[in-house]
Amino acid sequence: MARVLIVDDSPTETHVFRSMLERHDFTVLVAGSGEEGLRIAREVRPDLILMDIVMPGMNGFQATRKLSRDAATSAIPVIIISTKDQETDRIWGMRQGAREYLIKPVSEEQLLDKVRSVMAA
Question: Which residue pairs, CB below 8 angstroms and at least 24 apart, start in 9-16?
Fold first, then answer.
């Protein structure tokens, strides 16, 4: 069973993504901040990380950049999921190490397609 870490400060968004993933037999871990996400990623080494951008403290771009530069976590693929639908944010996210970028709201089909695609690469 693949482990997915959701890094998002919104309990509502976290619940929605967790429900979608657990229905398809993924094991889900949750972090409410970028800092907590880094700690869990280093400790657990999930198979994939879903990363929000706008969070208090360390934002998702900063956390993704730190993950991609850390030898212990650099192989973990990151999908950024954000309400921001701007090409500059998409490009910036990819430059920080993200493999994909999804715009909220995300359908279950979209999420699963991206998760499976990134994990298969």
Answer: 9/33, 9/52, 9/55, 9/56, 10/52, 13/52, 13/81, 13/104
Q: What is the domain extent for residue 43?
A: 3-120
Instruction: Note the pLDDT tens digit of each residue in 48-57.
Output: 999 999 998 9
Can you spell out the DSSP letters for 55-67?
-SSS-HHHHHHHH
Are 52 and 9 in contact, with CB atoms under 8 Å apart? yes
pTM of the model: 0.94
Task: Retrieve residue 42's tokens.
Answer: 């280093």
- Write out the two tokens for 53: 């951008």
- The CATH number that applies at residue 32 is 3.40.50.2300
pLDDT in tens, 71-118: 999 999 999 998 876 666 667 667 788 899 898 899 999 999 999 999
